[in-house]
Amino acid sequence: MKGKTAEESKTTLTDMVLPGETNPLNNLFGGELLARMDRAAAIAARRHSARIVVTASVNHVAFNKAVPLDSVVTVEAKVSRAFNTSMEVFIDAWIEDRQSGDRTKANEGIYTFVAVDETGRPVKIPELIPETELEKQRYDAALRRKQLSLLLSGKIKPSDATELKAFFTEE
Ligand SMILES: CC(=O)SCCNC(=O)CCNC(=O)[C@H](O)C(C)(C)COP(=O)(O)OP(=O)(O)OC[C@H]1O[C@@H](n2cnc3c(N)ncnc32)[C@H](O)[C@@H]1OP(=O)(O)O
Q: Ligand 1 centre from 151 Cα, in Å?
C-alpha cells in the first residue's frame, strides 16, 4: 500500500458563527465547534484512507479563545499519523479579522478515526508521510498520544504503554 503525505489529506472548512450556534455570552457553543472539527477531520481521514471512517476517540480539545458571534471560522484538518487501521487527525481552528483578513489561531483538537469496511470491521490503511517540521513533530508524538488514549479508555495496560512510559522516565 503506497504511503500518502499529510498534505494530501488536508481539509479546510470555512463558515460563519450564526445566532443559533452561540452560548449566552454570544460566543460559539463548544459542541458546535467540536462538530465542525469532527466533520473536517472525518473528511481528512477519508481522503487518506479512501475508506469509510468512524470517530474512535476525541483525544484532546483546547478551547483557548472564545469565538464571537459573526466570526468567520476556518477549521483545517490533516492526518498526522496512520497506524494499522487507525489515524490521528490534527484540527486547527482559526478566526479571521473582518477588515485585515489576518488569521488568529483560536482552538485545536486531536481526534482518532478508524477506517472500516461496509460491515464496520477495521481495515488496513496507507502509511502517512510527514514532510514539514510541524508534521514531523506531530507524527513523532502521535504514538504516545495513541497509547495514552488506549490507556484512558481501558484498552491497554500501563505496562503496554512503552513509548508513553519512556517519555516520562527519559533524562
Ligand atoms: C464520523 C463519525 O462521527 S462516526 C460516529 C461515531 N463513531 C462511531 O460510531 C464508532 C463506534 N465504534 C466502533 O465502531 C469501534 O469501536 C471502532 C471501529 C472504532 C474500533 O473497533 P474495535 O473492534 O475496538 O477495533 P480494534 O480494537 O481493532 O481497534 C481498531 C483501531 O482503533 C484503535 N482504537 C480503538 N479505540 C481507540 C481509542 N480510544 N483511542 C485511540 N485508538 C483507538 C486501535 O488501537 C486500533 O488501531 P490500529 O489498528 O491502528 O492499531
A: 14
